[in-house]
Design a protein that fits this description.
mainly alpha, Serine Threonine Protein Phosphatase 5, Tetratricopeptide repeat, two-stranded parallel ribbon, 16 helices, 2 strands, binds protoporphyrin IX containing FE
């Protein structure tokens, strides 16, 4: 082989190596930013109000968020959310090489915390899903449950190989664990990326949150990243310059897609959540919830009108306040109270299809079929795209 050919080959190898390193760093940076925003929004939106003793906001984004009296279920949700913040932050600290190399004792303790949290988040998630009930159908629940099993399996392997001082295998399992844990970020980004590409929901019914795309993404959220990681390991071990360049290009494109999804979910969900968390207004739902418990629903309804007339700017009267309180009451099987609260919301927001949909659900759970039908019809009139209402009307044998 001539010297010129050898030099060219060496240059190509070095270019491939540098490009792959750059693509990996770019991927890690995007995930790091996404994880940080995600953790900040979870800590702000769920954590801050909880510290003040205000739990009703949990029901705004979680099917069975906080149900008064259900100590075990509420503990599971609290543990899941707390573990979410801890595991995201611990993961970031665990993988930054500068921290890992300079502070080995911290790395060990943070690693232990990560492994323990992998179990707490998974067990709490499984409890929320199978005991309390959650959004989605059986196939989605199976997908997410397999994720919980994989998280615990990977955590066990990470620990096992660290204790055996086989750091090469330990590192591989640590990366797998990090990816399966990060699936919670990937699924949110993937879902919102599909909204951008399709200009709306794709492959599922937004009213019931069921459909083939959601089944697919419930498994793909961790299987695709794990497959890419195995490919990456093989590339590092065996591939030549061309293989490395191909891997770098694929990683780069995947990162761009991930970044777009993270940006979309940040703007649609996390920025509004953070804004709500730092909203200086008092939650009217929380105030009324306390009154319902201490003095009953009639006094709560009276208080609602009084506050609205006297101090409208001090309290938060947004649509989702009474809507989430209504769902909280439905969750606690206090259907009469839920109907009353949701009627107040319909009075305040008479043009909202969502408000009538919630009211219809409360009537249905209370066994009042004619009112359930009337309110689903009203909801459909205001929002003809409400596929959930169409489905419910069919179920109720309504015209
Ligand atoms: C490991 C990473 C995970 C993180 C960071 C995470 C984070 C979260 C967050 C923040 C929520 C609240 C909803 C939201 O604001 O988006 C949530 C809900 C939930 N999570 Fe997880 N989660 C993880 C893993 C799991 C696993 C493994 C399961 C297993 C079954 C699970 C089950 C659930 C359930 C059932 C809900 C409630 C969904 C509903 O509204 O019905 N999560 N999770």
């Amino acid at each position: 082989m001539s010297t010129a050919v050898m030099t060219n080959r060496l240059e190509l190898n070095s270019l491939a190596e540098t490009t792959l390193k750059a693509a990996t760093r770019f991927w890690f940076l995007v995930v790091l930013i996404g994880q940080s925003v995600f953790a900040f929004s979870v800590a702000s939106f769920y954590g801050l109000p909880a510290l003040r003793g205000d739990f009703h906001g949990w029901s705004k984004h979680i099917t069975h968020g906080h149900i008064p009296g259900d100590t075990m279920g509420n503990f599971a949700v609290g543990m899941h959310l707390f573990s979410a913040v801890v595991i995201i932050l611990a993961g970031v600290l665990q993988l930054v090489p500068q921290i890992r190399n300079r502070f080995p004792v911290f790395h060990r303790w943070n690693g232990r915390l990560y492994v323990v949290t992998a179990f707490t988040i998974s067990i709490a998630g499984l409890y929320m899903m199978w005991i309390r009930g959650s959004v989605g159908d059986l196939s989605q629940n199976l997908g997410t449950s397999l994720m919980a099993v994989l998280i615990m399996l990977c955590a066990g392997m990470v620990l096992r190989y660290a204790m055996a001082r086989d750091f090469r295998t330990h590192r591989r399992w640590a990366l797998r664990l990090y990816l399966v844990v990060s699936a919670s970020l990937f699924i949110r980004a993937g879902l919102f990326l599909s909204f951008i590409l399709n200009h709306g929901p794709f492959g599922f019914d937004p009213a019931t949150f069921r459909g083939p795309f959601l089944t697919f993404i419930s498994f793909a959220q961790y299987l695709v990243p794990l497959a890419v990681l195995e490919l990456y390991f093989r590339t590092q071990e065996r591939a030549g310059a061309v293989g490395r360049l191909a891997m770098a290009a694929s990683l780069f494109m995947l990162t761009i897609a991930l970044g777009a999804g993270i940006f979309a979910v940040t703007m649609a969900i996390w920025v509004p959540q953070v804004k709500a968390a730092y909203d200086p207004r008092t939650s009217v739902a929380e105030t009324l919830s306390a009154t319902i418990v201490s003095r009953g629903i009639d006094q709560a309804a009276k208080q609602y009108y009084e506050l609205k007339a006297a101090v409208p700017a001090t309290y938060n009267f947004d649509e989702d306040e009474l809507n989430s309180l209504g769902y909280q009451l439905i969750g606690a099987k206090k259907f009469k109270e839920a109907i009353r609260i949701l009627e107040l919301n319909a009075e305040a927001y008479p043009r909202s299809g969502n408000v009538y949909d919630s009211l219809a659900e409360a009537y249905m759970d209370d066994g009042n079929k004619p009112q359930a039908i009337a309110n689903y019809q009203k909801s459909l009139e205001l929002n003809p795209k409400n596929a959930g209402a169409v489905q419910m009307l069919r179920k109720l044998n309504a015209p």
